[in-house]
């Protein structure tokens, strides 16, 4: 598109409604399919010798259907209600500035997603992810007749023993995961959107239908599971599963070596199938539904839509 025909890129003001929208979308995502898929992939990543059926039996044994929602309250809800707002706010700002410097939709999507992912990790996802993983992987004392500590007792016990570092264990792996996750999801979703425009004869910048946006987001979310090794590393660093062979004071590098030596390349990709499903669902919620919901809010409030996030 030439400079004479290109529409000027205008920066929309930051709106509280967008932050609430991000939180609401993430709460919907995690309470519906998100947490069950999270529990399945975390269980498979932490217990890498289990088959898929074995992982499902292990989860069911922790509390039946409620076992699939372990860690939802309060940690997944705390994470969801904050990280969605952080993602939409930071990603929108970063994507706008990248486009203002001449980046393509694909490039700006990657910049926005990576920026939002890093902000998520250090603002809220680190400690919430750590506590979710602790909830999913710790042994149930009830099996021995001892009443298990509550989730808040577990949190305080870790804090007393290990401090802030203990409840943020694996945060650097989380940051790597989040920046590659959302860089891939936003970038690949935008790339797929452009491919759909080309195949359907739509012009650059022309809006896609709701179905086309969902397809683009699903493709972007599914393909973003290429970084599964860093997710397995993150789970292992945060896991409470007992293994006397596991090195102390794990770093990302030490954990990679330990998993590779113990389980090989396959071990680094354990849980990739539910992760693909989770990636698709998260991206549909946060990219496709996020775009559609923002447009709907802007129409209801009578504000002109000047630029996509």
UniProtKB/TrEMBL annotation:
GO terms for molecular function: tricarboxylate secondary active transmembrane transporter activity. Keywords: Membrane, Mitochondrion, Mitochondrion inner membrane, Transmembrane, Transmembrane helix, Transport. GO terms for biological process: alpha-ketoglutarate transport; mitochondrial citrate transmembrane transport. PROSITE patterns: SOLCAR (PS50920). Its main location: membrane. One of its GO terms (cellular component) is mitochondrion. Coiled coil: none annotated. It holds the Pfam family Mito_carr. Gene3D superfamilies: Mitochondrial carrier domain. It comes from the Eukaryota. InterPro entries: MCP_dom_sf, MCP_transmembrane, Mito_Cit/Oxoglu_Carrier. Belongs to the mitochondrial carrier (TC 2.A.29) family. This is Mitochondrial DNA replication protein YHM2.
